[in-house]
Each structure stands twice: as structure tokens, then as C-alpha cells.
Write a structure and sequence with these properties.
CATH topology of the largest domain in chain A: Dihydrodipicolinate Reductase, domain 2
Largest interface: A-B, 50 and 50 residues
Shape of chain A: globular
Strand content of chain A: 25-35%
CATH architecture of the largest domain in chain A: 2-Layer Sandwich
Strand order of the largest sheet of chain A: 14-13-12-11-7-10-9-8-15
Oligomer: homotetramer
Chain lengths: ~325, ~325, ~325, ~325
């Protein structure tokens, strides 16, 4: 017996969602809801065996739908997701999970109460490089983490409704929350806006306990596209350069050896260098992997690691960043 | 009639200074002062025709010395430079010009009063890439500047007496002060320390008027060496990648076009892309060029662009950064 | 009145052809012929408004088809193309145009006789980098050409029916024939086979008049993917690196200045270096551009630059390369 | 008791030789011979404790010299080396060991007869990357070698007395002879000359038994500097990119798996891909290492791997390449 999928929103990302759910052996794309008639026509063309409708409610409240996939503007996420949950559906919701952390928490509570599964679509967590980084960090081979530095810059894609941190850094926040067990205690944000009221060049810092620090550079005004993350550990260091065609992850057997010399007050530090290794990464489409994981979570009644609470923790940081920006970059404590 | 040079300090940088002053057609390296007997022996071996002495005063107060070159630890810069000035000598002093901005200002005042020339050795300003950037920025072809972003990271060189910003970002501060006419109004610094009391991962931000912002990442714990600066202008954008063997400077004919669409409240921005150009850069040793410039300034009674006041403006920013670090990264206004 | 397109062969490349012809405003994909039932089912799924048939003749001899697109194995090209021409159809044929240069010539003759248009699908000629190189070479700014050196290597894609030169170097031969007006006079080929009877590492050399030389490295056993071409001119030199994400074409203002020094028998050569420039390249799909060009040629009764004779000249070189391989790499003259 | 070194020739490379022999704890640079008075003056300046003389014979026949270092034009190598050997001296001779393979053989014979040590200065064999490649190839981890492909190109350095193969490919020939135990059986060379009678763009091929093939591209007219070698093995593949600042050697766990499918005549090949590893390389000056090795060989009466016969085998290949060029690139068998 296959699960009936209803997709709400057939804009930029909708076609990818439809294709990947349709390819899953346990799923049928039963219905697609889209308000825009042009986009609806496209959906009809591509999915002759699905029903294409105009109203979200034809999915969210319909008894024949098992899973609702929400790919609409963020301001609607809360309302649509809650309706779906109240009608007993599991929900896949695009990131950010909701417009505020409060909404996100209420989604999480509703899902828990009804024993339904909600997943926040943080697709990056299912890419080869991030999966490999998770494996490396979890193995402990890097030693204690010292810092995390991410650069995600390019020319383009002003969004009129969000600033550059909500647009670009959100990916990296989902990633660091996935990789690192500890939660940040404090957030600060720095930025500058040049072409409208939202910042288009932004820097975000997260402070953790034990001197671990994370810093994110997001920029819509860079002439070159850079996606590079450095992760420093006491035993190993790692570079994820997503701009590389191959060898996106490099693990350096480099570190710092600290020792106390007799009669010397200050610690002495020397460097240790060894081989570099670039591991083979999983290929295949990240979104297909995430759909498979979601269905598997539903099958086994498990909560996904990127559930509504995980989505909420990203939104909490972005909200704190907005507060820091409003306070002239003063650090802001996280709840 | 050649000028007699006296070099105070023959440590890491001293041999390069001796070699470059010795190569200048108007200079003679008359005397070298060095307290350490081993280093003194090296100086004697390499410079058989110069006098090698133990005490700085044998240069600073000697009537036969025209120019004193101070290459000693920063804590001694003020005392040695002032003594040299009081004895009528022009002074070349290593960066940072002094340990505090107050000392730097007093050096500048003394030099002005006595009509002597002081140069702060910011060697980077005489490299091919920085000279070319200066030319490009001055030409106005970039349009108004939007942001400046610098990354200078590598594994290594803990200095026990300064933090990573004083060690690495100082280069970039001298450069941005040289390139940009405006002065920053506010500074903030973020950092983390892992192996001693000084931060080894640091981020520095400068705010300017007109939404221009500059940000610097300095890091002693990076597994890879990166030296890359992005400069965004309204008309052109520039990348300086000092890790490239050639093509260190790339100028992108890229920008943002902003227009108002009738009846639309928000500005609309679109991107403009064109060719990239990597200009031929001056080759040759930067230090030789700087020595030539210094002698030329003395000959013509001109103050170098990297005089004691220029050195002071770098120290002012680093002092403000230290204050910001002490205030948990709160922004600090510059004098 | 739209032109009716019939596509013969719906294997690897067929879907791309169907999509691009379908997108052309003057074309309708009327019919698709495919012998394999599985592939036929895929065609039916994707093209509900086209007829999907089993036999090529249902296209080649059908009165309602204006243009036949031949995307079948090379051994069938001659037969299918000749049948289409004899039934009055214009023909798009995949590369290589035919299995032998003799077949190719007969196709060209038949097309000329019937005033029909045949195009050989050398898609690379319609990519941004090759179009830009054509423009640069034609402008004369490079001065006389000195050499052409191409490397096209990767791990993979053993083809059991052809050697690595027919698989990979064929692209570069189409390109050099397009860029350079002169024809090579002599060919030699060097190679080695390790896993079946065909060479999997190959080197091909073309000799031209005036000391211009072209050399091609094709390799199925390289651990890294390299696609890089150097073109040396007397005034400018060019690098096409297709592995770059951007800046695929770089033009160097570098050259050699030769002069005779009085009383010196040998010529003296010095180097001239200047800026590098990376021009903006056309984006968009090369195949779409080629389809547009083909229809335009038909509309205006012009022969495409990549017509059957152009296809023949590539096959001639590959045939000569095979003879050279059989003769232990001895150079072989071209007809 | 230290060994007395006499250096014959103080041109481009002589200063490096003097410095590295002087730094060896068992050596004293006793005497330097140089015909040019200007160069002699430089030697006197730099080496106040050595004797600087005008005639090679003052070293080659002097009883107080233990080791003669020959750094003169290649046409003089034979005569000078033979004189030194006849006077009982060990000899270090720059590459190529002699102008002809016949001369090289007679040097080797003379050294063997007199039980003296001759080393050919193939400095590259003592660099970190080549030492690591030797270790990897010898370990057998690469499986049987399939091909070797080297590119060594840049703009510049026309030499009026030799062609580009003698200038650039000679390095790679010394390297491949060092790495690979088998000897090539056949040589062919292809080239083109544009500015004088010697070729400035050259391709050299070596054939070995068992389908192993080596190919070398040497070019004085490339706008970019490339030094890249691919080595394909059945189990592992290797890239040496000397243009990288770090990670010059990368070892790919990639290969080809061949199997026979029942009832299928042709072999089927599939690809195997795994991690990449970039090993830590020895740092330090290659020439210092080579001097140490040479002295060690003398101490223990061992013949260096880069002895006169090794030098001869490089010259043999270059001679065969010249014959191939004269025969319009026909393959030429090696003795």
C-alpha cells in the first residue's frame, strides 16, 4: 500500500520535490496544489497522472492524503503545517520551518502530541560532503573542535523579503547544528546594506562553551562564488570547499602540540603536520536521499534529526542575529 | 656623497634591511648594532666592510650616521626612535611603529618639529598587487566602495607577546588605510584563544561612513594558507589572491544596477557581468622599492605616505580592537 | 507553418535532441523512431503529443516529415542519411558523420545535388568558449598561430567499438578545423592499449604548413579530469580550461620578440608579457544554439560550417591516425 | 679530516654548489676556478676563505683536492671529468653528464677502473615529490604501470645551443629512469621550431615492453607555467603537480577492473574509485640532500644511483630523439 503525497506549492522547488517523491517506491504523488494558473499548467503537463488543484485545503484536509509537502512562502508555513497536522498528516516543510521560533515550537508540540512526523527540508544535510563531515566529527578523530569558519558568497539573488543571513547563512546554521552537539550561547551579527533596507553583506558569530567559536560570512556582492568552510580541531583540521569539482572534503593531519617547558610560565605551542586525505563522497541526489530518510522515519516512528525542533534552532539563531543587528552588533544571548 | 646607514637590530628582518640599503646607490651600511653575540657574528661574516657593534647608542647618537634603521622589538621602538630623532637622524622603523598610539604621535611630532623623515616599514604597500590596487581604487573605475573583506590565515607562528590581530591583521590595516581615503569610525573585534591567553582566531570589523564596511579574518589555526581579499565597488569588483603564483589581482567588470519600477515601492537590483582582467604587476623586491622611496622622500623633504602618523593610525585600530575584545566584542568608537 | 521533425534513435542523446527541437519556435517533433521497446516507452512518456514508432523508415520515407534527425550508431549513419536525402529531407546527423570519409563524401555530394541541408552535430562548436575562441582567432589579434595543444583526459568510458582518439580527440579535431583555416598535411598517432584491443591512451599530432603544429592527448585512464587547450600565437596566447567553473578562456598578452643583433648570426628572442583578460562567454545551451543555426541555414539555403564535408574532414584525420597506429606511429599524409 | 672540494665553473649554478658543499660538515670549499674575471670577483667576495683561480687545471690536477665539482658548459664535461679522474679525484658533474653517450660511457669506465665515484647532478631526484614517488612506485601499491605523462611548459628561456627537449625534458627523463626499472626500447620525437633552428615545442615518446608508454611535452612558448605528471597504475594513479604550493603529490585509489562476462568475447572494464591521499613531503633543499648522498657514497664506496651510467642513459634517449626529429618523427630504437 503506497503513501499518498500531496504537494502544496509548485514554484521553484516544487518540481524537484514532485520528481523525488514520485521516484520513491512507497510514494505516489496524488495531488498538487498551486494558486498560480501558469504554474498549475506546468504541473498538469509534467504530472498527467496526478490531480492538480488550486487550493491548499484540497490537500491539507483531504482524507486520502497521507503526507503533506509544504513548499510555499515562509509566512504561510505555520498555518499550513498546523492544518495538515490537525488532519493527521505527516509533514515535509521547506526551510525555514516557520517565520518565528515560537511558531516552530508550536509545530513541534503539535506533531509530538499527535505522534506525527515533521521534517524541515535542510537538503544540505543529505549531500555527500556534509554526510562525510558528520561521520568525521562523530568519529572523534579531529579531537576537540576549536573553530568553524564558513564563507558563502556570490554575486546575486537579492531577496526583497529577507536579508543575506536568512538567505545564505541559514544553510550553514543547519549544518553546524547537525555537526556539533553543543548549542551556542551567544550570537552577534554585523552587516551592511547598499541597495535596499536589508543587509547584503553579513557576518554572523556564534559563541559556544569551551572557547569553540563559529563565524559565517554571507555576501550577495562578491564577484566570485566561494563556498568554503574550515573546521579546526585539536588533532585534525578539515576544509570543505564546495567549489571544487572533486575533492570537496580534505582532512589534514595537522594540529598543535602544547607543552610546558620547565621554568617557563607560558605554554609553548608547536605545529604538527602530516598527510592530507580526501575521502570518496557519496554521490546521488541529496533530495532523493532525504525523501528516503523521511519515509523511513515515518515507517519506524522515529523523529528525523532535521525535525521541527531542529528547524526551530536555526530560526532562533537568525532571530538573535536580527536582534544583534538592531543593537549595532552587540552580542545577544540565545534562550 | 653617500648617506651613512646604521642598522639597529640584526635578527629576522635585519639581514634583508642591510642587503637592500647596501644595494641602494646612495647608501652605505656604515654600522650594525646587535646585542646578541651570535647574531653579531653573522653580521660580521656577511658585512665585512661594515662596523658591527653591541650597543644601539653607537648608532643613534653617533655623528657619522645619517639614517637610523630600527629593527628591534616593538617595546623599544619609541625610545630608540626618539633618541635618533633628537640626534638629527632620519628614521626607518619596523612596524608597528610603536607600542601605543600615544608613543606614535609623539614620534610624529618630534619628526615634524625637527623636519626629519620617519618611515614605518609597511612593506606590503610596496608590493606589486597593493600598488596596482592603489592605482585601480584611485582611478575611480570601481565606483564607490561597498565592502572590503580580507582573509589571512595559516597554520603557525604563535607569538607569545601579541594576539593574532596584531600579528596578521596589521598588514591588512596598513593596506586598507593606504587604499581608502576615509577613516573608520568604529571597530569591533571577535576572537577565541585556545593555547595561551592571546586570541589565535580573530575577526576584526571596521565601520566607515556611507555603509562601507571592512572585515578581516586572521587565524593561526588554519590547515591551509589563504590570503584573499575581496573589494566590492558599485562599478567593478576586485579579488586579490596572494596565494596565486600569477594573476594575483583580478578585476571583474561586475556590478549591481538599481532601478525603481513604476508603482513598485522596493528598489529592484539586477546584476551586470562583463569581462575579467588580470593586470601585469610590478615585479622586483618590495623592500628595495621602499628603500628607494624612503631615500627619495628624504632627498626632497617629503613625508612618506607610510610615515609615523600612518603607523599610528594602524596602532589606533589595534588598540580599539583590544578594547572591543575586553568588552566582549562590543563596538568601540575610534578617536 | 512549422517544420515537422522526425527523430531516429532515442538513446543517450535523443532526449536532448527532442527537447531542443521541441523548444524551437519553428519546429514540431512529429515522430520518434526507436527499435528498443524500453526506450520507446520512455519516449511515449515524455512526448505524449508525438508519434513514437519502431522503424526508421516511418520517418525517413514519410511525406509529412521535413527534417530527419539521425541519432543512431555510426555504422548506420550512411544508410539512414542517404535514404532521408533521397526522400527530400534535410538531415541532422550525430558525429561522426559516417564510418568512413568515403561515405561522408557521398552524403555531401547527395545533399549538394538535391540542394538539401546536412549538419554534423559537433555540439562543442556552439559552446561559449569555442565561439569566443573563433572570434579571437578570426580577429587576428593573436598573430600567426604557432602551436595548438589539447589535453582531454579522464577516468572512464571505454567504448568497445572505437579507440580513445575516435571517442575524445574527435571533439578537438572538429574544433581545430573550425578555428584554423589551413588544413593539416600530415598526421601521426601514438597510443597504448591495456584492457582491450583499442588504445586507451592516445596522442595525435597534426602538421600544417608554416611550422604550425597541433597535438592532442586523449586518455581514458587519468585519475583526474583535464580539459585544457593551449593556443600559442606570435602576438597573444590563449588558454581554454574547460574544467574552470568560470574564466574558461584566458587571453594572455604575451609573445616573443625576435630581432637580429648586428654581427650575431643567430636570432635573439625575448619575451613580452602584459595583462591577461578573461572575456565574458555566451551562456545558454549549446545544443539549442546549434538547432537554431541549423533551422536558419535551411531557411536561407546556406550550408552550415559543420556540414557533411566538415564532418568528413574530421573522419579523414581519424582514419589517417588509425593508419599511423598500424604503421607503428609513422607519419601519414592526408589526402 | 675534511675533504677538499674544488669547484670548476662559477656561473649560474656554481654559487649554489659552493654554498651546499660549504655547509656539509665533512667538506671544505678549498678552491674555485672560473675563467671570467667578473664571476671570479664575485666568488672572491662570497668565499673569502677559499682560493679563487682562473684555470680548471689548478683544481683537476692539484694534489690537495679530493673532489672536483664540474659546473661548466656541457661540451667541456668529458675532458674535465676525465682529467679529474686520472688525477684520482671523485667527480660531481652537472647534467647532462656529457655531450654524447659515448663520452658518458668512457667516463663511467674510467671511474669504475679507478674505483672513483662520479655523480651526475640530477637535482630533481632529491626533491620531496620525486623521493615520495620513488617510494610509492617501489612499494608496488600502484600495481603494474600503464603510462607516464609529463607536461613541462612555460614562456621562456630559449637556449641557443640546445632544443627544448634537451633543456626541459632532460629533467623528466632522469626522473622516469629513476622511478621505472625497465628501460625503454624505442623513442620518437615531434617538434616545431619558430624562432631559430632548434625546436621550441617538443613531444617525446618512450615505448617500453608490456605496453607501458611514456610521453613528455616540453614547450618554451606556453603562456602559463605547467609542471604536471600523471602516472597511471593498474591499482592506483598518481598526479605530481609541481605548480601546487602544497599537495604536490596526490595518490588516487582509482583503477580499472577487468572481467570476462560469460559468452562475451570482449573484456569488460569498469572503474574503481576510492579516496585520494596527499602525503607529507620532505622539505629542505634538494641540493643539500644530494651533496650529503654523494659524500655518503664516497665514504662507503658505493656508486650513486645517478652515476655516470645513469647520466648516459638520459643522453642516449636525447640522442635518439634527435635522430627521430631528423627522420621526420619516425620511431628510433634505443641501443
Amino acid at each position: 500500500m503506497k503513501r499518498n503525497i500531496g504537494i502544496v506549492g509548485y514554484g521553484y522547488w516544487g518540481p524537484n520535490l514532485a520528481r523525488n517523491f514520485a521516484s520513491h517506491p512507497e510514494c505516489v504523488v496524488k495531488r498538487i496544489a498551486e494558486v498560480d494558473p501558469n504554474q498549475r499548467a506546468k504541473a498538469e503537463m509534467s504530472w498527467p497522472h496526478s490531480e492538480v488543484v488550486a487550493h491548499a485545503s484540497q490537500i491539507l484536509t483531504a482524507p486520502d492524503i497521507d503526507i503533506a509537502v509544504i513548499a510555499t512562502p515562509v509566512s504561510t508555513h505555520f498555518e499550513l503545517t498546523m492544518t495538515a497536522l490537525r488532519h493527521g498528516k505527516h509533514v515535509w516543510v521547506e526551510k525555514p520551518v516557520a517565520a518565528t521560533s515560537d511558531e516552530a515550537r508550536r509545530i513541534a508540540d503539535e506533531a509530538a502530541k499527535r505522534r506525527l512526523t515533521v521534517i524541515t527540508d535542510h537538503t544540505f544535510l543529505f549531500t555527500g560532503p556534509v554526510m562525510k563531515m558528520k561521520e568525521i566529527v562523530e568519529s572523534g578523530e579531529m579531537g576537540s573542535l576549536l573553530y568553524y569558519d564558513s564563507v558563502r558568497v556570490n554575486l546575486g539573488m537579492f531577496q526583497h523579503d529577507v536579508n543575506v543571513l536568512w538567505d545564505l547563512a541559514t544553510h550553514d546554521l543547519a549544518i553546524i547544528n547537525y555537526l556539533v552537539k553543543d548549542r551556542p550561547t551567544t550570537v552577534s551579527a554585523i552587516g551592511s546594506s547598499h541597495f535596499n533596507s536589508h543587509i547584503d553583506v553579513g557576518y554572523l558569530t556564534l559563541w559556544y562553551n569551551d572557547n569553540f567559536i563559529a563565524h559565517f560570512h554571507a555576501n550577495w556582492l562578491s564577484p566570485v562564488k566561494i563556498r568554503r568552510t574550515l573546521v579546526g580541531g585539536a588533532q585534525r583540521m578539515l576544509v570543505w570547499d564546495d567549489g571544487e569539482r572533486e575533492e570537496k572534503i580534505k582532512i589534514y593531519d595537522k594540529g598543535v602540540k602544547v607543552f610546558n617547558r620547565e621554568g617557563v610560565y607560558q605554554m609553548l605551542a608547536t605545529y604538527r603536520v602530516g598527510d592530507m586525505r580526501s575521502p570518496l563522497l557519496s554521490t546521488g541526489e541529496a533530495l532523493a536521499r532525504e525523501v528516503g530518510y523521511f519515509i523511513d522515519c515515518i515507517d519506524h516512528g522515529r523523529s528525523p534529526h532535521n525535525d521541527a525542533l531542529a528547524g526551530m534552532r536555526v530560526v532562533e539563531i537568525l532571530e538573535a542575529a536580527d536582534r544583534s543587528l538592531a543593537l549595532n552588533s552587540a552580542p545577544v544571548e540565545l534562550p
